[in-house]
Amino acid sequence: MTVKLRLLRRRGRRSLHRLIFVSALAGMLLVAPGAANGGAPVVTPQIFGTLGLNGWYTSNLTINWAFDGPVESSSGCEAVTISADTAGRTLVCSATRDGFTTTVSKTFKVDRTAPGLSAALERAADSNGWYNRPVTVAWVGADATSGLAGCSSVRYAGPDNPTAVVSGLCRDFAGNSAGSSVTVKYDATPPTVFGVVIRLGNRMAEVSWRASADTRSVEILRAPGRDGQGESVVYRGSAAGYRDTGLTVGRKYEYRVTGIDDAANRSDHTVNIVATSALLSPAPAASVSMKTPPSLVWTPVKGARYYNVQLFRGRKVLSAWPVRPGFRLRRTWIYHGQRYSLRPGTYRWYVWSRTSRRFRLLGSSTFVVTK
Predict the structure, then answer these.
(1) H helix and E strand count, the chain
(2) Distances from the Cα of 61 to the Cαs of 43, 52, 53, 201, in angstroms?
(3) How many Å apart are CA 368 and CA 286, to the nearest integer?
(4) Eight-class DSSP state of 81
(5) Is the pLDDT of residue 25 over 70?
(6) Can you tell me the distance from the alpha carbon of 234 to that of 242, in angstroms, rounded to the nearest whole number?
(7) For the whole model, what pTM was predicted?
(8) CA-to-CA distance for 102 and 93, rounded, in angstroms?
């Protein structure tokens, strides 16, 4: 009985020792380094500022340091404000507790400044400061701290506008951006030339036209041109008409009347004629239908009392004495008691004028009658 009691007492003491050891071990775990009341401190930077792109801050930056509890000493952990752009400023904070020291180093990049920029148009204006076809505006820039990430490029192709605003920007790697605008005078619409009329005279042509209000000048090109040229400018100005003289009777001419605006837009209107002498119509060697007899028209003569018209088809087949500068042929007529009819063939006609002073030949021409 006594032996059993001694054994129980020994076993109890061993269990108590085990309990004390386990409790001590648990206490050691609860106060391991990093705990609030002892061991190596936890050092955390507290950052106040605007975070941009790629790790850059784009405003003034204030850095405070926080610990997870009381520390015995610290170094470099004062609050710091960075108010100047920097490609990298490194701050180091060290704190010591219970013989353990924690050091944290962190680099801060600050770029508060937007890039500088300017706009460049791809080419000079087409005319008088105006652009009449699409133009690209490209922005170029530079950034001294974080570097330039990219700039805009804008193609302007209308609408027409004397003060078209084209805007663009440049951005740096921190996310700062700056923009600007340029004004473009743009007009891609040509003026309008209309109502072009050519009145023929004796070896001359009078060209007249009408033009829209935005037409700055009119240019006339004639083919064939002067001095043996295939085409040449015979007129350039702002009038509404032009007289071209010295034409060759029977020659075909092409007149291209071109309206030009301030932006150098152009619009053309083309008219073809056959130069005549004083005998205007039909044009020399023109073809007419026997079913629609032509009117013979010539240039009026000042002071003419009457005219004499003679028509030949191999021989004279008609003579008439109109008082006005024109005579309408008929399909049939009587001359010297003989009836004639307008039939296919080549006809030549002459006109004389009679004034109080003299009887004068104005000229002759031909036309061809077809079925």
Answers:
(1) 1, 31
(2) 19, 12, 15, 89
(3) 6
(4) E
(5) no
(6) 9
(7) 0.71
(8) 8
Residue range 111-145, pLDDT digits in tens: 999 999 999 999 999 999 999 999 999 999 999 99
| DSSP state at residue 187 | -
d(CA 46, CA 28): 31
| Residue 317 forms part of a structural domain | yes
Report DSSP letters for 286-355, one per residue: EEEETTSPPEEEE---TT--EEEEEEEESEEEEEE--SSSEEE--SEEEETTEEEE--SEEEEEEEEEE-
Per-position b or e across 170-195, b if 16+ CB within 10 A of its CB: bbbbbbbbbeeebebbbbbbbbebee
As for how many domains the chain has, the answer is 4
Tell whether 175 and 202 lie within a shared domain.
no
* pLDDT of 181 higher than 50: yes
Instruction: Count CA atoms within 13 Å of residue 36 on its CB side.
Output: 0
Closest Cα partner for 60 from 50, 71, 69, 74? 50
Is residue 360's pLDDT more than 70?
A: yes
First to last CA, the chain: 162
- Residue 206 and residue 255 in one domain: yes
Domain that holds residue 328: 279-370
User: What phi and psi, each to the nearest 5 degrees, are found at residue 206?
Assistant: -100, 115
* 98: Cα within 13 Å, side-chain hemisphere: 14
DSSP conformation class of 278: S
Residue 14 resides in a domain: no
The model's pLDDT over 36-89, given as tens digits with 9 standing for 90+, comes to 457 999 999 999 999 999 999 999 999 999 999 999 999 999 999 999 999 999
In a domain, 6, yes or no: no
Same domain (yes/no): 104, 122: no
How is residue 106 written in tokens?
């962190």
CB-side neighbour CA atoms (13 Å) of 194: 5
Say which CATH number the domain at 265 has.
2.60.40.10
Q: Taking Cα atoms as reference points, which of 177, 151, 154 lies closest to residue 165? A: 154
In a domain, 33, yes or no: no
Q: Which helix (H) or strand (E) holds 266?
A: strand 266-274
357 and 287: one domain?
yes
In the chain, which residue ranges form alpha helices assigned H by DSSP? 2-30
Are 263 and 128 in contact by the 8 Å Cβ rule? The answer is yes
